[in-house]
Amino acid sequence: MWSKKSTEVVLKELAVNSATGLSEHEVVQRREKYSANELAIISLKPYLEFFSLN
User: Where are the alpha helices (DSSP H) in the chain?
Assistant: First the structure.
């Protein structure tokens, strides 16, 4: 678990420099490998329509 590790350990495991972050090249490579760091957006409209019919 990341939350139980020290900042230094996490940075080392993720190969990130805390002062400079990731290079543009590294960002592109990681996005290709892991995809973008985004949350899925769930629409509430179908749920609202379902409950309004009852």
Answer: 7-14, 24-34, 45-53
Whole-prediction pTM: 0.56
Q: Based on C-alpha coordinates, what's the Rg of the chain?
A: 19
CA–CA dist 20, 23 (Å, integer):
8
Q: Which two tokens stand for residue 15?
A: 């190969």
pLDDT in tens, the chain (54 residues): 888 999 999 999 999 999 999 999 999 999 999 988 888 777 667 766 667 665
